[in-house]
Amino acid sequence: xxxxxxEVKAAALGIGSLRRHIFLCADQAEPKCCTREEGLCxxxxxxxxLRTEPGIxxxxxxxxxxCEQGPIAVVYPDGIWYRGATAEVxxxxxxxxxxxxxxxxxxxxARDPLHGPGQPPEPR
Length: 124
Fold this sequence. Notes:
Elements: H1 3-12, E1 20-25, H2 36-50, E2 56-61, E3 73-76, E4 80-82, H3 87-99, E5 108-111
Parallel strand pairs: 1-2
Antiparallel strand pairs: 1-3, 3-4, 4-5
Helix pairs in contact: 2-3
Protein backbone atom coordinates (compact mmCIF):
# COMPACT_ATOMS: atom_id res chain seq x y z
CA UNK A 1 0.00 0.00 0.00
CA UNK A 2 1.43 3.38 -0.98
CA UNK A 3 2.06 6.07 1.59
CA UNK A 4 -0.66 8.39 0.23
CA UNK A 5 -3.20 5.55 0.21
CA UNK A 6 -2.34 4.67 3.80
CA GLU A 7 -2.77 8.30 4.88
CA VAL A 8 -6.18 8.44 3.19
CA LYS A 9 -7.27 5.24 4.93
CA ALA A 10 -6.05 6.51 8.32
CA ALA A 11 -7.97 9.77 7.85
CA ALA A 12 -11.11 7.83 6.87
CA LEU A 13 -10.86 5.91 10.15
CA GLY A 14 -10.61 9.17 12.10
CA ILE A 15 -6.97 8.71 13.02
CA GLY A 16 -5.61 12.13 13.79
CA SER A 17 -8.77 13.28 15.55
CA LEU A 18 -9.29 10.48 18.07
CA ARG A 19 -10.28 11.25 21.66
CA ARG A 20 -10.01 7.74 23.04
CA HIS A 21 -8.90 4.28 21.96
CA ILE A 22 -10.21 1.10 23.60
CA PHE A 23 -8.38 -2.22 23.34
CA LEU A 24 -10.33 -5.38 24.15
CA CYS A 25 -8.84 -8.79 24.84
CA ALA A 26 -11.01 -11.10 22.74
CA ASP A 27 -10.68 -14.22 20.59
CA GLN A 28 -7.53 -15.40 22.33
CA ALA A 29 -5.49 -18.20 20.82
CA GLU A 30 -5.64 -19.88 24.24
CA PRO A 31 -8.56 -18.37 26.23
CA LYS A 32 -7.61 -17.85 29.88
CA CYS A 33 -9.31 -14.71 31.23
CA CYS A 34 -12.75 -15.66 29.92
CA THR A 35 -14.26 -18.10 27.47
CA ARG A 36 -13.78 -17.53 23.76
CA GLU A 37 -17.52 -17.03 23.42
CA GLU A 38 -17.58 -14.31 26.13
CA GLY A 39 -14.70 -12.47 24.48
CA LEU A 40 -16.23 -12.62 21.01
CA CYS A 41 -19.64 -11.56 22.29
CA UNK A 42 -18.05 -8.52 23.97
CA UNK A 43 -16.10 -7.68 20.80
CA UNK A 44 -19.14 -7.93 18.54
CA UNK A 45 -21.10 -5.70 20.91
CA UNK A 46 -18.27 -3.12 21.01
CA UNK A 47 -17.96 -3.04 17.21
CA UNK A 48 -21.67 -2.49 16.77
CA UNK A 49 -21.96 0.05 19.59
CA LEU A 50 -19.03 2.23 18.45
CA ARG A 51 -19.98 2.21 14.78
CA THR A 52 -21.59 5.66 15.08
CA GLU A 53 -19.34 7.24 17.73
CA PRO A 54 -16.84 9.64 16.14
CA GLY A 55 -13.47 10.11 17.80
CA ILE A 56 -13.43 6.70 19.48
CA UNK A 57 -11.34 3.88 18.03
CA UNK A 58 -11.44 0.21 18.96
CA UNK A 59 -8.92 -2.59 18.58
CA UNK A 60 -9.29 -6.31 19.28
CA UNK A 61 -6.16 -7.83 20.78
CA UNK A 62 -5.28 -11.47 21.30
CA UNK A 63 -4.14 -11.02 24.90
CA UNK A 64 -3.42 -8.17 27.32
CA UNK A 65 -1.46 -10.59 29.57
CA UNK A 66 -3.77 -10.24 32.58
CA CYS A 67 -5.44 -13.59 32.34
CA GLU A 68 -8.12 -13.26 35.03
CA GLN A 69 -11.59 -11.73 35.34
CA GLY A 70 -11.90 -11.01 31.61
CA PRO A 71 -12.61 -9.83 29.12
CA ILE A 72 -9.97 -7.21 29.89
CA ALA A 73 -10.16 -3.75 28.30
CA VAL A 74 -7.90 -0.71 28.43
CA VAL A 75 -8.79 2.84 27.39
CA TYR A 76 -6.12 5.27 26.19
CA PRO A 77 -4.89 7.94 26.58
CA ASP A 78 -6.47 7.70 30.04
CA GLY A 79 -4.77 4.38 30.81
CA ILE A 80 -7.82 2.96 32.57
CA TRP A 81 -7.81 -0.85 32.80
CA TYR A 82 -11.11 -2.72 33.18
CA ARG A 83 -11.97 -6.25 34.29
CA GLY A 84 -15.16 -8.12 33.40
CA ALA A 85 -15.72 -6.11 30.21
CA THR A 86 -18.75 -8.07 29.06
CA ALA A 87 -21.27 -6.51 26.67
CA GLU A 88 -23.25 -5.17 29.64
CA VAL A 89 -20.20 -3.58 31.26
CA UNK A 90 -18.98 -2.25 27.90
CA UNK A 91 -22.26 -0.38 27.49
CA UNK A 92 -21.45 1.53 30.68
CA UNK A 93 -17.80 2.02 29.66
CA UNK A 94 -18.92 3.46 26.30
CA UNK A 95 -21.56 5.77 27.77
CA UNK A 96 -19.84 6.84 30.95
CA UNK A 97 -16.13 6.76 30.04
CA UNK A 98 -15.57 6.86 26.29
CA UNK A 99 -18.31 9.44 25.72
CA UNK A 100 -18.79 10.99 29.16
CA UNK A 101 -15.17 11.01 30.34
CA UNK A 102 -15.88 9.31 33.71
CA UNK A 103 -14.34 5.88 34.34
CA UNK A 104 -16.66 3.12 35.57
CA UNK A 105 -14.88 2.79 38.91
CA UNK A 106 -16.33 -0.54 40.06
CA UNK A 107 -14.72 -2.29 37.08
CA UNK A 108 -11.37 -0.42 37.12
CA UNK A 109 -8.42 -2.42 38.46
CA ALA A 110 -5.43 -0.34 37.27
CA ARG A 111 -4.46 3.08 35.95
CA ASP A 112 -1.50 4.05 33.79
CA PRO A 113 -2.21 7.17 31.70
CA LEU A 114 -0.07 8.04 28.70
CA HIS A 115 2.14 11.09 28.98
CA GLY A 116 3.47 13.35 26.29
CA PRO A 117 7.18 13.53 25.46
CA GLY A 118 9.18 15.07 28.30
CA GLN A 119 6.22 15.01 30.71
CA PRO A 120 6.68 13.18 33.98
CA PRO A 121 4.06 10.63 35.06
CA GLU A 122 1.29 12.03 37.24
CA PRO A 123 1.67 11.29 40.95
CA ARG A 124 -0.43 8.37 42.14
